What does this fold into?
Amino acid sequence: MPTPLSNRRRKAIAALSRRRGRQHHDQTLIEGPRALRSALDAHAPLVSVVVTTDVLSDSEVQTLLDRVPVPVYETDADTMTALSDVATPQGLVAVAERRLQAPGSMPERLGDAGTVLLLDGVQDPGNVGTLLRTAAWFGASAVVAGPGTAGLYGPKVMRAAAGSHWALPLARTDDLGPLLDRFRRQGAALYGADLQGIGARAWRPTRPSALALGSEAHGLSAAVLNRLDTTVSLRGVSNRPAAESLNVAVAGGILLYEWLGE
It folds into this structure.
């Protein structure tokens, strides 16, 4: 049976809705039964689970709780609303440890087939989460977030990534340049998305390699752009000025397919 949620524990969990709290505790929140199921399937490092009294009678939730290897706490709907980041909470949140590695340790070597996605100033959390999900789907070796990129474990990123945090190594760095230099020394090809690059259809990526995606507003930073071997672009229909550019998550998904798809 779940244990009543104490006020002390409630405050600690509530702190995870803020970036500073996530960094201090090195933990993040997982919201809803579907996200918890993905975390359990991936053997995510869970710490605890909180449920509202009214969802305990839900057979799906009860099945999930039977699989949970950590303490389960019970609370009321008002408290759950305060803990949740969404307007209509699903009655369940879980706390998990963040798996954020030092960029120098991941991967130790790229090997013959290593592939690392670099996010260079991708600010929108939804785009970051979607790119994590896409990178996991296509089997990237790792994802590294550079300066200006949204927090990898923020609530919007967690929702958009749909459990992908537990499927691939993640890291963050304040300077992508030295990491690219290390990849080059390991024999990796360095690619990046840029409007002035070659067309994606003419791109012939090799492995090991890294692919850098920049912000929609500013593109790749000079520290990254100046280190690349090849830049790649997606060419639209020139007589259709309906959109200035592709969303970075859409463009990134297409390039990930060209890079890693079978």
Observations:
- The chain has a mean pLDDT of 92.
- The chain has two domains: 3-98, 101-260.
- Residues 101 and 171 are 5 Å apart (CA to CA).
- Residues 125-138 form the longest helix (14 residues).
